Amino acid sequence: xxxxxxxxxxxxxxxxxxxxxxxxxxxxxxxxxxxxxxxxxxxxxxxxxxxxxxxxxxxxxxxxxxxxxxxxxxxxxxxxxxxxxxxxxxxxxxxxxxxxxxxxxxxxxxxxxxxxxxxxxxxxxxxxxxxxxxxxxxxxxxxxxxxxxxxxxxxxxxxxxxxxxxxxxxxxxxxxxxxxxxxxxxxxxxxxxxxxxxxxxxxxxxxxxxxxxxxxxxxxxxxxxxxxxxxxxxxxxxxxxxxxxxxxxxxxxxxxxxx
Length: 259
Hints:
Layout: H1 3-19, H2 23-30, H3 34-41, H4 49-58, H5 63-72, H6 90-102, E1 108-111, E2 117-120, H7 122-130, H8 151-155, H9 166-180, H10 188-198, E3 213-217, E4 220-229, H11 237-241, E5 243-249, H12 252-258
Antiparallel strand pairs: 1-2, 1-5, 3-4, 4-5
Helix pairs in contact: 1-5, 2-3, 9-10
């Protein structure tokens, strides 16, 4: 067996374990015998392309890992991995640009899989200026290419210095980052840095219903809560990995100031 083929059983077993589904239940959902499913997980049988795609879909495996699993089984990848500037994503880019602009004057930005800022509206530029942080941000239409500003690096650096509740924000973020690092190993170093900041939080602190990020600015304290939106049913690794962060004023003073 090749090393690539040997990697498939481990990937499938980890995916099933994360979903907390038994071999029997998964076999029933896929319409195969538990014996055959067990043989695949042991590396003693190779699934067909159709079965493997249904298998990975049932376990809600990210598209990037689905491509890796297909290749490990000797099949061609099924999902496009082209960049954000690919010709086939023109409509998606236009939709994101419209969303970012329509959210102004409130901040909104498009984040890549490793938290690179792919696009940002005027509200983000205003916020960074208000807190005295310099960053070369792309506009709502996106960046033409690297280098890009990384939001985690900003948060662990100059932006974090003006977040007045940084340990609380880091603690909320940590669980999400650890989950994402499973498929994005490049995040692991930043996960450890965020964990160190989160460790400064009082162990007895109670988390609020929603995280409010608070910034010290020349206008006084600014408070924002965030919502994230993603593309529905993407068949592109790139689209699945992107998300838009929409920031909303969390108090009247911040709302009035931005408006």
